[in-house]
Amino acid sequence: MIKKISHIAIVVPKLEQATSFWAEALELNVSHQELVSDQGVSVAFIPVGESDIELLEPIDPTSGVARYLEKRGPGMHHICFEVDDMDATLARLKAANVPLINEEPTMSADGKKIAFVHPKGTNGVLVELYELPVTVQSTESGEDVRQRLREGLRDGRNIYTAGAKAFLSGIRHGRQPENT
Amino acid sequence: MIKKISHIAIVVPKLEQATSFWAEALELNVSHQELVSDQGVSVAFIPVGESDIELLEPIDPTSGVARYLEKRGPGMHHICFEVDDMDATLARLKAANVPLINEEPTMSADGKKIAFVHPKGTNGVLVELYELPVTVQSTESGEDVRQRLREGLRDGRNIYTAGAKAFLSGIRHGRQPENT
Fold first, then answer.
1. Which terminus in chain A has less CB density within 10 A, N or C?
2. Chain B: nearest CA to A46, how far in angstroms?
């Protein structure tokens, strides 16, 4: 059900300064950096084994991450698990009376299903859950997937379409909520 | 150099209550639980992919973990990376002027080299580094290793001796500090 730790997110004031420890000093590499405008953050991805360290720099002072940084200072922000079946996972958590921030998953631009569990049900830890599109092979690393999506964009294929196709393919293969 | 995330440690007031989310609701299993008297904590290990979630319950009110819980409440406490060569890693961090809690590694009862990096050099994150004894195969999971060590204890072999043997074996194979 839970496959692995997808990433650990760390809030930092400035990505450039933070990578001097999290990448250079640790001999790790920033695989990819992107602006997530709707969350008001700039993100650097640093693969470690099967997981990623995700450094988050708030670029919008009104964003949740900016308020977190102001209130608590830099540090670990959330842990994200990759699950194989988001609908089944959320159903199970609801049945166990675990408080959820997202009762229904949201869909990211690249076709991931995403939901957050409320820290009051997890001993104060913000927990994110990811389900990758069914077109993504579990043997691919996070960077493989991002690279393939970037290539897809360069090829003129639309990742929104890819996400929708993945979703529809899931339904065709009997993965709709009532069957899980 | 860094092989993977070994574990994410989470401070909780009571292990029994915490495992209702971190194990049962997430369909994960507590592989092992132990009392680490010299750190004043009771620890539950929950394997996830190649890593572990480690739940820490302070049992000594004067311990560092108890003070952390009192001051900051429950939540993520530290992240631990497995490194292949602790001496080389610490030398590299010193050269990069990263502040260390342990300038020299300490040796755990089961033969691991352990060192902590100071949060003031890591954007507020307490970072632990582990080097497993050279007798431990990298393909073994944390639980495999713990199981083998428990079996070793049952067989009357002493894990302290195993740690010392691993250390001496490392030296024999040219892994002493001046060669790294």
1. N
2. 12
Which residue matches tokens 């809690």? B101
Measure the CA–CA gap between B100 and B94, rounded to whole angstroms: 8
Reading the block at residue A124, the tokens are 């104060």
A-chain residue closest to B21, CA distance: A122
Measure the CA–CA gap between B79 and A54, rounded to whole angstroms: 13
List for chain A the helix, strand, coil content (%; round to 5).
Answer: 35, 30, 35
Per-residue pLDDT reduced to its tens digit, B67-106:
999 999 999 999 999 999 999 999 999 999 999 999 999 9
Contact by Cβ (8 Å): B83, B89: yes
Q: Comparing C-alpha atoms, which of B117, B125, B34, B113 is closest to residue B77? A: B125
d(CA A54, CA B70): 28
Find the residue in B nearest to A94 (Cα). Answer: B25
The pTM assigned to this predicted structure is 0.77
pLDDT per position as a tens digit, A50-104: 999 999 999 999 999 999 999 999 999 999 999 999 999 999 999 999 999 999 9
Compute the count of residue pairs across chains A and B with CB atoms less than 8 Å apart: 108
Mean pLDDT (whole number) for A143-160: 53
A120 at interface of B, judged by CB pairs closer than 8 A: no
Residue B70: count other Cβ atoms within 10 Å of its Cβ: 10
